Amino acid sequence: MISTLHSSGKSLDRHIATLHVAREIDKRLHRSPYKELQKLNVTCEDRVARITGFVSSYFTKLIAAEEIQMVTPDGWRVYNHVVVRSQSEETRS
Fold first, then answer.
1. Contacts of 29 (CB under 8 A, 6+ apart)
2. 64 contacts 40 by C-beta, under 8 angstroms
3. Using one digit for the tens of pLDDT, what is the confidence trace for 1-58?
4. 60: which of 18, 52, 55, 64 fits an S-S bond (Cβ 3.0–4.6 Å)?
């Protein structure tokens, strides 16, 4: 899988639901025409989805959040921890 998936929950049903959401997010990012989104990591735990990684523009960061928000169920929270790097920062790394 492209994204890192992590889940924990109190019951088996909740655990299965969390894995389902994580898979849906992973599919959504993988199918995106924005190649940078395929490199992002997603962590799902206790009805919270967190995205982390690096992108080259703020616009791409917003697209990542929107893509994930579209597949997360009501009651879930999405935290966008994606960092925007300029091209000069990437060449120094």
1. 2, 3, 37, 38, 40, 42, 64, 67, 68
2. yes
3. 444 445 554 578 888 888 899 899 989 998 989 899 999 998 888 889 999 999 999 9
4. 55
In whole angstroms, give the CA distance from residue 31 to residue 40: 13
d(CA 13, CA 1): 22
State the Cα–Cα distance between residues 26 and 49, nearest whole angstrom: 11
Q: What is the CATH number of domain 12-92?
A: 3.30.1340.30
Q: What is the pTM of this model?
A: 0.70
For residues 5 and 27, is the Cβ–Cβ distance under 8 A?
A: no
**Strand partners for 79:** 50
